[in-house]
Amino acid sequence: MEHEESKKKILNRLKTIKGHIGGVEKMIVDDKPCEDIALQISAIRASVHKVGMLIMEDYANECIASNVDLPDEDIQKLEKVIHTLLEFTK
Fold this sequence. Notes:
mainly alpha, elongated, 87% helix, 0% strand, Methane Monooxygenase Hydroxylase, Chain G, domain 1
Protein backbone atom coordinates (compact mmCIF):
# COMPACT_ATOMS: atom_id res chain seq x y z
CA MET A 1 0.00 0.00 0.00
CA GLU A 2 1.32 3.44 -0.86
CA HIS A 3 2.34 5.51 2.17
CA GLU A 4 0.06 8.49 1.40
CA GLU A 5 -2.92 6.21 0.82
CA SER A 6 -2.21 4.43 4.09
CA LYS A 7 -1.83 7.74 5.91
CA LYS A 8 -5.21 8.94 4.59
CA LYS A 9 -6.86 5.68 5.67
CA ILE A 10 -5.39 5.97 9.18
CA LEU A 11 -6.45 9.60 9.57
CA ASN A 12 -9.99 8.79 8.43
CA ARG A 13 -10.21 5.98 10.99
CA LEU A 14 -8.96 8.30 13.74
CA LYS A 15 -11.63 10.87 12.83
CA THR A 16 -14.25 8.13 13.03
CA ILE A 17 -12.94 7.09 16.45
CA LYS A 18 -13.19 10.70 17.64
CA GLY A 19 -16.82 10.73 16.54
CA HIS A 20 -17.53 7.51 18.41
CA ILE A 21 -15.93 8.89 21.56
CA GLY A 22 -18.14 11.98 21.29
CA GLY A 23 -21.10 9.66 20.93
CA VAL A 24 -20.15 7.80 24.10
CA GLU A 25 -19.83 11.10 25.97
CA LYS A 26 -23.35 12.01 24.85
CA MET A 27 -24.64 8.59 25.85
CA ILE A 28 -23.25 9.10 29.35
CA VAL A 29 -24.78 12.59 29.60
CA ASP A 30 -28.11 11.17 28.39
CA ASP A 31 -27.95 8.31 30.93
CA LYS A 32 -28.06 5.59 28.30
CA PRO A 33 -27.90 1.98 29.53
CA CYS A 34 -24.46 0.67 30.50
CA GLU A 35 -24.91 -2.20 28.04
CA ASP A 36 -25.18 0.27 25.12
CA ILE A 37 -22.18 2.27 26.33
CA ALA A 38 -20.09 -0.88 26.77
CA LEU A 39 -20.93 -1.95 23.22
CA GLN A 40 -19.72 1.40 21.86
CA ILE A 41 -16.55 1.22 23.97
CA SER A 42 -15.89 -2.23 22.51
CA ALA A 43 -16.28 -0.84 18.98
CA ILE A 44 -13.88 2.01 19.79
CA ARG A 45 -11.32 -0.43 21.19
CA ALA A 46 -11.53 -2.55 18.03
CA SER A 47 -11.10 0.56 15.86
CA VAL A 48 -8.04 1.69 17.82
CA HIS A 49 -6.56 -1.80 17.43
CA LYS A 50 -7.19 -1.66 13.67
CA VAL A 51 -5.43 1.71 13.44
CA GLY A 52 -2.46 0.25 15.31
CA MET A 53 -2.31 -2.65 12.89
CA LEU A 54 -2.44 -0.32 9.87
CA ILE A 55 0.38 1.77 11.34
CA MET A 56 2.49 -1.31 12.05
CA GLU A 57 1.92 -2.68 8.55
CA ASP A 58 2.82 0.63 6.93
CA TYR A 59 5.90 0.98 9.13
CA ALA A 60 7.09 -2.55 8.37
CA ASN A 61 6.54 -2.09 4.64
CA GLU A 62 8.38 1.24 4.64
CA CYS A 63 11.34 -0.32 6.48
CA ILE A 64 11.54 -3.15 3.98
CA ALA A 65 11.15 -0.98 0.90
CA SER A 66 13.73 1.56 2.02
CA ASN A 67 16.34 -0.69 3.63
CA VAL A 68 16.43 -3.83 1.53
CA ASP A 69 18.09 -4.13 -1.85
CA LEU A 70 15.85 -6.76 -3.41
CA PRO A 71 13.92 -7.03 -6.64
CA ASP A 72 10.39 -5.58 -6.51
CA GLU A 73 8.91 -9.08 -6.71
CA ASP A 74 10.73 -10.16 -3.54
CA ILE A 75 9.73 -6.96 -1.72
CA GLN A 76 6.10 -7.65 -2.64
CA LYS A 77 6.43 -11.16 -1.24
CA LEU A 78 7.83 -9.78 2.02
CA GLU A 79 5.00 -7.23 2.23
CA LYS A 80 2.51 -10.06 1.77
CA VAL A 81 4.14 -12.03 4.61
CA ILE A 82 3.97 -8.95 6.86
CA HIS A 83 0.31 -8.51 6.02
CA THR A 84 -0.40 -12.17 6.73
CA LEU A 85 1.40 -12.03 10.09
CA LEU A 86 -0.49 -8.92 11.13
CA GLU A 87 -3.80 -10.50 10.11
CA PHE A 88 -2.91 -13.54 12.20
CA THR A 89 -2.36 -11.39 15.29
CA LYS A 90 -5.85 -9.89 15.19
